[in-house]
Amino acid sequence: MVLALDIGGTKLAAGLVHPLDGTFARIVTALTPAGDAGRVWRAVGSLIGRCLAGTEDAPAAVAIGCPGPIDVDAGTVSPVNIRAWRDFPLRDRMAELTGVPVRLANDAICAALGEYRWGAGRGVSSMLGIVVSTGVGGGMILDGTVYAGPTGNAGNIGHAIADPEGEPCPCGARGCVETIASGPAMVRRARVGGWDAPPTATAADLAHAAELGDGAAVSAFADAARALAVAIVSASALADLDMVVIGGGVSGAGELILRPIAEQCRRYAGMAFIRRTRVTPGILPRPTAGLLGAASLATADTPRRGRPAEPPRTGRR
Questions:
Q1: Entry pTM
Q2: Which of 10, 51, 57, 121 holds its CA 20 to 30 A away from the CA of 42?
Q3: Which CATH number, 3.30.420.40, 3.90.550.60, 3.40.30.10, 1.10.4200.10, labels domain 123-281?
């Protein structure tokens, strides 16, 4: 089995995965703590301990999906949405902790590969997977092969520019998709627009307000959909995509976000090869897609097609 990790700005997940058939022996989760680099690392170590507790054999490898930017050669990560980690030596720390080979990749690339092999992307040749959550990430499968680029950061659609005169982004640019379409960005923009909500309000609360007709909430979702559609149409123009699969916590808003994305894509797409790109929600539950994709990368560089015909199972074997 492979020990797979999905590291996010809000949540951490670890799973013991059988990568060839897409089944799990165990999945455990935890919240990503605020604080310094050591505190985040200790939370990851504690999660691994819980995941491996009671297992008889060490995993064959560790596979990590982590937000970017990452440096695959150096094995370091500097996630935009985990500010405590800057040039953090995640691969080497994990190798020291576990004593087995470690594969590091962008978390959105892992999620895209999970959906490609086991979820909504089965049967297509080229797809873009987008994760809309605390941040906005992306990963590409081109002609049946994961494309991560020379540094491991290809497909990072959250930092494509949707509004050149827009808000500054923590990445150093301005008007990134993530400044408009991530969960925290949508909440922040809705507050500016007049949404009256408690300080602890989340994107799920914003979705509920939009369903009830709150104008500022509806506007925040419309802005997010427009930014995502601009990025999707641009990516399809560049890569001639068969499909775009949207996952992550914000995608849980369903048609509230997916319908306007589709409408805006139809508005912006001109040429027939761009209009043919299908936009669809992911079908794998969180954090299954990212864990499966990470485990697949740990065992092969090229994704395999085919079964299982049903979504992956969880639970002990």
A1: 0.88
A2: 57
A3: 3.30.420.40
Considering only residues 14 and 19, tell me which one the structure prediction assigns the higher pLDDT: 14
Please compute the mean of the pLDDT values over residues 112-120 and round it to a whole number: 94
Residue 98: which residues within 8 A CB-CB, separation 6 or more? 3, 48, 58, 59, 62
The band of 317, judged by pLDDT with boundaries at 50, 70 and 90, is: very low
- To the nearest 10 degrees (0 to 180), the angle between helices 183-192 and 215-239 is 140
Q: What angle do CA 106, 75, 81 make, to 5 degrees?
A: 45
